[in-house]
Amino acid sequence: MKKPLLLIVALFLTYSAAFAQKAGWPEGKTFHHFMSTTFHPAEEGNFKPLREKADSLVWAAEAWKKSPIPADYKEKETKAALKTLVDQTKELKAMVKKNFSDADLLKMITAAHDTFHKVVGECRKDDKH
What is the DSSP code string of 27-43? Predict the structure, then answer.
């Protein structure tokens, strides 16, 4: 059952990244790169990429938050979600620095992953994504 779920998540992430690129929001694509290369290995029990790229997740989230919001996104909701994403990645970075358990890191990266999907999904003005 885990493999079909992972396939669905992988397909959704691929679609989300393509959507961010199509929308002309390169900062979203950059963030997606760091999210996908840390979250998916962590799901499989490999936390090394997350521990090594926690700084990059913060950097990419901050860059995304500072970038202009495309017209096809709900401004208020997008700003709020991106602020949450920055806060989550900063907390994740602090947790890595303090050597939190893999289980704790998985909870936080999962929350950040969910927020990423909120930005690329729920924050869109057009529900036909």
Answer: HHHHHHHHHHHHHHHHH
